[in-house]
Amino acid sequence: xxxxxxxxxxxxxxxxxxxxxxxxxxxFLLIEKENVAGGLCRSVDVDGSPxxxxxxxxxxxxxxxxxxxxxxxxxxxxxxxxxxxSRINIRGQLIHHPLEANIWEMDxxxxxxxxxxxxxxxxxxGSPKPDRFTDWIRWKLGDKIADDxxxxxxxxxxxKNLDILGTYWLEKLPDVSFExxxxxxxxxxxxxxxxGHARFYYPKKYGYGELWRRMSLVLGSNIxxxxxxxxxxxxxxxxxxxxxxxxxxxxxxTIPWKMYKELKGMPDSIKAQVDKLLHTSVCVEYFGExxxxxxxxxxxxxxELAYHRVLVRSNFCNNSKGYWTETNKxxxxxxxxxxxxYMNEYAYPLNTIEKxxxxxxxxxxxxxxxxxxxxxxxxxxxxxxxxxxxxxxxxAEKIIK
Length: 401
Description:
- With about 400 residues, this protein is α/β, with parallel strands linked by helices.
- It has 2 domains: about 1-85 and about 200-400, FAD/NAD(P)-binding domain (3-Layer(bba) Sandwich); about 100-185, no CATH class.
- Helices cover about 30% and strands about 25% of the residues.
- The chain has 12 helices and 20 strands.
- It has helices at about 10-20, 65-70, 110-120, 120-125, 135-140, 145-160, 180-185, 210-220, 270-275, 355-370, 375-380, 385-400; strands spanning about 1-5, 30, 45, 50, 60, 80-85, 85-90, 95, 200-205, 225, 230-235, 240, 245-255, 260-265, 280-285, 295-300, 310, 325-330, 340-350, 370-375.
- α1 (about 10-20) runs parallel beside α8, α5 (about 135-140) packs antiparallel against α6 (about 145-160) and α9 (about 270-275) crosses α10.
- The longest helix has 16 residues, at about 145-160.
- The two termini are about 15 Å apart.
- The model has no long low-confidence stretch (mean pLDDT about 95).
């Protein structure tokens, strides 16, 4: 029997496994179904340069302890540092993100229209905070930003029925007050708390997946690639794969809960909570033409366009060209025109109204069996890779004796 069994070789599993190794614990095994570790952060060579097949992933500068840990695998001198340049395409005009902090980049009539709408938003006139997602967006940002950007963009990214989403996660959005918006229009400068990845690292010579590949190499015989987990048995703390069976004192699961064909020993009431966990699938498609912009990525709320975001590879990946689009699976055309496409079946956990209670019940019960959900899929949270690493480091510190 192993001491630790880790399911999934993305950032969460790789971080936890390497923390074990650094603390002198070698009685563990990490199992990953792909032949290359990295999960959503994997990269492949396309058209002569790296392309990140899981979509846009970057290393935020804000967590120095996380970066210190990661730089031990891929030194800091192998990374470039960027000041984030992200835009929103509003009817053909590229406005910096977040929109409410940068409407000063628009013509004066548009500025007046947006300011009037924001001023009358519910949060600025004392209306109670609503419970429904669509109502919250209007309450927080006003009708115009809701109709021109936030609602059409989120429908493209998460699906047509936005009212299945809760509002508990929206506090992570950039918080721009009406006063900040007005001040930015007067002085032609953005006033607001910077969004995530305001400054970020990206490798000089590789795709983002190179970091995680190196982390997997350090593990040696403690990692098994190309092996798929079939089911999990909570009473015996064991798993069955397409190549064998394994048992452990502790199991760390970082894969989507619905990937297990059977959850043996889990009560029906908890299985019912697993059934409530929803996700979106996203297709990444590469095009070789360069775009005339300095932006690193651009958001596209226009419902007539299938994709919701474009990553301009040539603006952050050295010696590369072209760009890739990201498109919800439900909006993917039958035949794309790009040079390369990759479908990520599990791309984003959906923050549905029921999710918060459901995942809490799942994780609390699993802990009683010494099974720990970790990372974007183990905790069913839209974590960026740097936060995933931080949480994995914390869990390792907590349970490694």
